[in-house]
Amino acid sequence: MKKRITAAELMSKLNADPKFVVQRAKREEEHQKRVAEFRRAEAPLVEELRAAGFAVESVGSLLNTATPYPKALPILLEHLQRPYPGDVREVIARALAVPEAKFGWDVLTRLFRDERDDERAKDGLAVAIAAIADDQTIGEVIALARDPQHGSSRLLLLSALERSRDPRALAALMELETDPDLVKEIRVILRRLKRKR
């Protein structure tokens, strides 16, 4: 039987391996470079948020706060329509994933439909749409979820269908259960819904 080693022993062994140390340093350098590029790209939005009274270091700061930020939402929605890199647009969209952002429904769904270049941005938009969807807009969510051109981002729309009390949402989930991109998640959702009944 092989002797088990502790995490500390494993780290000590890895730190003694020059190849591992070089690879780790390279990964850390690449990570720091991506962070710096992200901060540089988001700077105009961060400046505008600060000028509006929000003490943020990054747009991502809004994702980690329990304090509502309704006055920031119009700023976020306006910046989401600018040509930021995909990772910045993703974070902006996720920061709009709050019920108070419902006023931006038309813009968010248009941007989702039009997004072709960046999967991260499309995912962020799907998260925002699912968060603000209600029974008045569920028909549009169903149409987006049915459209295979939206790829795996459709998975992120399913939470709105699960949450909806509109009978069309359940019918859509059952219809989409055969969609190869959605089948696993929909089966989980349908089991959860069955247990709740």
From TrEMBL:
SUPFAM superfamilies: ARM repeat
InterPro entries: ARM-like (IPR011989), ARM-type_fold (IPR016024)
Protein name: PBS lyase
Species for this entry: Limnochorda pilosa
Biological classification of the source: Bacteria, Bacillati, Bacillota, Limnochordia, Limnochordales
